[in-house]
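Re: that backbone. Tokens:
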């Protein structure tokens, strides 16, 4: 195979996180296409260390924070001269922009933004976080292009940071659909899955304000007044105590189960009657695509950003207003009675495959580069 350019993927660490997972999927896909891949980590520590592709070159900058990693990153750029750089997360983007400038090399630099900037400003009250997001409009113009995880994030970024929309390119997160489908077939046992009289409603995500589980629990209480049902929540987080209190205060607490963290939630998605995302905001909403890949019927809040794009404006799942427990209850009940065809959801999930995303990324990282005779 003809030797292809070197691409650097820069990230903070190898801890478990959405950005890290996306970078690992991209690394695998780019390696399959024959590219040399450097995974450059501010600190190469964390559980994802074990899933770094063997063919990738792992570079540990040995720093505690992105800004303190700048000298080591400059040295890396001068030594390896990658043809293209992709960085993820706002503070890492700043470090990459500064490092390229002082390295004196002309490598192409693409930064990625994975969150709705205006929502982050609202929900991040700490001064340091607010300063970081306020600096986006100063730093991002120095990147060659900006990738966002959804069109909504792209529009919000252009407006809130006053950036050139032509430089902002939405590319949806890569989702390994076949891998998810394989994991979804693993056998699980829970009494609720064998209860044919009470459909199971499932939610998966961090126990965090963003996911708005109080509204989901309110919606379940409304639904449960009308018909038998069970609610299962998979996830862990700092709001566990508050959510446990909400469950305890529910008149239907025996029908609500807080499962904690589960490494493989996909069999649960495959078996649930309805999968629900009740978030106040998202960057993209990977979990919706994962649920569709498992053949689940999906209900989601129409939050910024991602669900409307993923669900095709109610074509592949129902959308309801953020924070509206009555509307959410009605949508769940409607989905129980009239579920979406599993094949339709699975086909939709394939629109977000790793292979499609990799080709789109190549087109931005290396414009005009030919892969298998085709220009991207």
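Recovered sequence:
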């Amino acid at each position: 195979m003809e030797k292809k350019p070197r691409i650097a993927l820069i990230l903070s660490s190898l801890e478990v996180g959405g950005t890290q997972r996306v970078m690992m999927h991209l690394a695998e896909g780019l390696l399959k296409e024959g590219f040399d891949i450097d995974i450059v980590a501010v600190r190469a520590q964390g559980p994802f260390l074990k899933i770094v592709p063997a063919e990738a070159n792992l570079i540990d900058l040995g720093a505690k924070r992105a800004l303190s990693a700048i000298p080591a990153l400059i040295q890396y750029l001068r030594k390896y001269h990658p043809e293209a750089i992709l960085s993820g997360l706002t503070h890492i983007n700043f470090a990459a922009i500064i490092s390229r400038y002082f390295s004196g090399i002309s490598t192409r630099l693409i930064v990625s933004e994975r969150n709705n900037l205006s929502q982050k400003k609202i929900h991040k009250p700490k001064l340091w976080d607010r300063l970081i997001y306020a600096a986006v409009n100063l730093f991002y113009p120095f990147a060659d292009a900006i990738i966002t995880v959804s069109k909504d994030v792209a529009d919000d970024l252009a407006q809130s940071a006053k950036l050139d929309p032509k430089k902002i390119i939405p590319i949806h997160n890569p989702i390994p659909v076949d891998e998810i489908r394989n994991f979804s077939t693993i056998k699980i046992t829970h009494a609720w899955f064998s209860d044919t009289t009470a459909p199971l409603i499932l939610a998966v995500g961090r126990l965090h304000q963003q996911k708005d589980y109080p509204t989901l629990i309110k919606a379940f209480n409304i639904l449960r007044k009308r018909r038998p049902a069970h609610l299962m929540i998979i996830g862990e987080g700092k709001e566990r105590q508050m959510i446990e209190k909400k469950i305890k205060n529910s008149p239907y607490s025996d029908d609500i189960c807080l499962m904690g963290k589960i490494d493989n939630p996909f069999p649960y998605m495959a078996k649930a009657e309805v999968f629900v995302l009740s978030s106040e905001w998202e960057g993209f909403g990977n979990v919706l695509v994962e649920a569709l890949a498992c053949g689940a019927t999906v209900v989601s809040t129409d939050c910024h950003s991602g669900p409307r794009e993923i669900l095709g404006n109610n074509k592949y799942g129902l959308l309801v207003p953020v924070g509206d427990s009555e509307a959410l209850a009605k949508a769940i009940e409607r989905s129980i009675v009239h579920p979406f065809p599993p094949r339709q959801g699975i086909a939709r999930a394939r629109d977000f495959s790793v292979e499609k995303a990799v080709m789109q990324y190549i087109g931005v990282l290396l414009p005009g580069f030919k892969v298998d005779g085709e220009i991207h």
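The longest helix spans residues 18-32. The first strand starts at residue 6 and ends at 11.
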